[in-house]
Amino acid sequence: MELEPLFTYGLPFLTAFAVGLLGRTRRIGFWGGVFFSILLTPLGGFLVALVSGAKPIEDEQAPKPLPAGSSEKKRRWFRR
C-alpha cells in the first residue's frame, strides 16, 4: 500500500481542519481559518489565526438589550 495519496491529499486537509479548529477560538472563526489555510498554505493560515487575536468573552449574566418596541413579557418568552 502506497502512502503517497495520504500525504498528498489527506495531510493538507487535516492541517487545514486543525487550523480551522484553532480559528474557532479566535476572531477569524473556523471557516476563516480553513479559508486562509487553503489560500496561504496551512502555515500561513496558522499565522493569520494567531495574529487575529482571541474572541471577546461575552458575559452570559448581563441582560441583552431589547429591540425597539419590545416589552418585558417578550423578553421572558425569548429566554425559554
In short:
The chain is mostly helical and 80 residues long. It contains 3 helices and no strands.
Task: Write up what this structure looks like.
The chain is mainly α and 80 residues long. The protein has a domain of 48 residues. Helices cover 64% and strands 0% of the residues. Helix 1 crosses helix 2. The protein starts with a helix and ends with a helix. The mean pLDDT is 81.
Give the secondary structure arrangement, pairings included:
Elements: H1 4-23, H2 29-51, H3 72-79
Query: What is the rounded distance between the termini?
Result: 55 Å
- Going by helix content, strand content and strand pairing, the class is mainly alpha
Q: How is the biggest beta sheet arranged?
A: none
Apparent shape:
elongated
Radius of gyration: 20 Å
The overall strand count is: 0
Helix and strand element order: HHH
Which percent band covers the strand fraction? under 5%
Mean pLDDT: 81
Q: Level of helix content?
A: 55-70%
Residue windows where pLDDT falls under 50 for at least 5 positions = none
Annotation field: number of helices: 3
Region (Disordered): 59-80
Keywords: Membrane, Transmembrane, Transmembrane helix
Organism: Polyangium mundeleinium
Transmembrane segments: 6-23, 30-51
